[in-house]
Amino acid sequence: MPLSLLYVASEVIKSGWDVRVVDTRVHEDWRERLTAISTETGIFCLGISVMSGRPISHAIEIGRFAKSLDPAMPVVWGGPHATFYPESILGDEWSCDYVVSGYAAESFDALVHCLAEGVPPTEIPGISWRQDGAIRRNVAVETQFEYIDYRDIPYHLIEDYSVYGQLESDQRIFSMYSALGCPYKCSFCSSPAQYSSIKGKKWVPLDAKDVVDHIQYVVETYSANFIYFIDDDSFPKLSHVENIIDEITRRGLPVKLGFRGARINELKRMTDGFLDKLAAAGTDILHIGAECGSDRILQLIRKDCTVQDIIEVNRKLARHPQITAAYNFIMGVPTETLAELKQTGQLMLQLVKDHPNCIIFPPNKFRPLPGTELHEVASKQWGYQMPGTLSEWANIEVEASAKAGWYEPGVERMFNLMLIASYFIDNKVARLTTGKTTFFKLARLANRLYRPFALFRLRHSISFGLIEYRLYRWATRFLTRAEKTS
Questions:
Q1: In the chain, what is the greatest distance between 2 CA atoms, to the nearest angstrom?
Q2: CA pair distance 417, 420, nearest whole angstrom
Q3: Residue 74's CB: how many other CB atoms inside 10 A?
Q4: pLDDT digits (tens, 9 = 90+) for 16-36
Q5: pTM assigned to the model
Q6: Fewer CB atoms inside 10 A, N or C side of the chain?
């Protein structure tokens, strides 16, 4: 669900503005919807939440379409990409007029007031805009976390929650926070830089009763049956989550749970009894940052664990098959060798062997993020420069070309092998899909035919002659073109 849009709408609604949400991921008729709103009441201001990568191309398309309806309509970009790279956005004057960086509920409300009064937003932190041919930027200095009380979240703006679930399931997923911030210092992650100005503790758990009140509200009001905690990290203090699941159990709320943030060093502290309680409370999935199969790289990126820790934690989780262990990996960290990258491939295979119910997510290519330790390393030692244009930023998906000065020969081919293999080695396609449509039948057939080859290739690190990667790239380009023309 587009929680970011609901959060940013919370204050402007209090100010009396009429807000409409158009989720272009599920509203294929978004052009018709925007046109109808513009015709009925006019659009005073259009806000777009944008992540880096392919969503940028879509945001440009939305912004330009809005300008075709009304060239004077202010278009505002917010979200993760806007928070870190506002200057890259304002170079395209046909798709964006203002950028909101950082927490946006209050600053967006203040910006709307300025637009209504016809004055520039010179005093609003976190706002960037064009003025007199130049880009102006007010840096946002966050001193506290943004907390939106669940009673202020305008859930009523979403007309149909049934679309926010998993493929082929009746899950109605509601995302929410149980804690704010993150106490760790991962050298590749933007969180330490993002939270550096926060006064006091960098991880603040919310009151367990308030969290479960929130859960009960969306269950009773919107028929939610799956709660996905999108905390940066939910488990620095295990008693925090234990208090929540105990209260869920006490109230008998019929929900399943998913946790986005779980670290290996935290899972090491979880007993089998604790995991039993998680499972009994409905925990369906834990997203776990395994990251890589090299102890040296794990130390470099500050994961506070070893490869053996990852293996032992996975074996412990295998004793609790009701909870799906879903592993994230990262490839191409500065100084990572081809041999170390191959170790990551072997770790993926080991995890699947020890825990057949686990999921291996497609690994992410490392991208230096400003303010992180590894950005400094990449910049100073290898002269790394960030993408300079929106079109370059739109081409940073995991399957896109990722040349970097610190790559050894053969690393890029290994990237491609690990990406392709990750879709098949855990047999997720066969385990998680039962659809009878032609698409799902073909997907399961491809999985059955190719999985033995994927396992063999990855087991022996055979990255030469990877014609299947070329087929994958062709298929993704075809689907992207089909999406644009639909």
A1: 65
A2: 5
A3: 19
A4: 999 999 999 899 999 999 999
A5: 0.90
A6: C
